[in-house]
Amino acid sequence: MKSEKRRQEILSLLGNAETAVPAAVLAERFNVSRQVIVQDIAIMRANGYDIISTNRGYLLTARKQVTRVFKCRHTFEELMEEGGIIIDAGGAVEDVFVNHRIYGRISARLGLVSRTHVEELYRSLFSGASKPLMSVTDGYHYHTVSAADESTLDEIESALRNAGFLIEI
To answer: Using an 8 Å Cβ cutoff, are 34 and 28 in contact?
Structure first.
């Protein structure tokens, strides 16, 4: 795994953690030394992330992120491709929502920060226990996407457009 990708995943883990995450746990998770994690944390701090060290591990106190809402449309089979585009470009899918003509806005928190999360969501929906929200609006849906900066969101927007998933609002 490349160092930038590892740092993105570390930020995601710290951002979603309810308690401090020890460097040893991060080192084991990413199969690197504890010293590599310490260096990664130093680099992320230098890039503006407010990560504090405690005797129990690292805490991310303020996430340096920007968000944008994208209106999309695709088939159920293309759900994984859409998620992969966003994740691979450095974004996170915070939620999904639809605007139903009778019920109004219906939303669900997703918190997808890795391809594994996207695959788990797809498997869960594919099992038939539930249907995706987009099924009630003929494939139309919105995602709130977060990223470290506006240029990353611009890349995601371009990639979604090129894939034919983006609906101009």
So the answer is: no
Query: Which SS3 state, helix, strand or coil, does residue 142 take?
Result: strand
How many angstroms separate the CA atoms of 158 and 164, rounded? Answer: 10
Q: Is the dihedral of CA 70, 71, 75, 76 positive or negative?
A: positive
For 14-46, write each residue's pLDDT tens digit.
887 878 999 999 999 999 999 999 999 999 888
How far from the centroid of its chain's Cα atoms is residue 94's Cα?
Answer: 6
pTM above 0.70, yes or no: no
Question: In the structure encoding, which two tokens stand for residue 132, read together?
Answer: 């995706």
Cβ–Cβ under 8 Å, residues 90 and 155? yes
Tokens of 95: 């939620």
Percent helix, strand and coil across the chain, each rounded to 5? 45, 30, 25
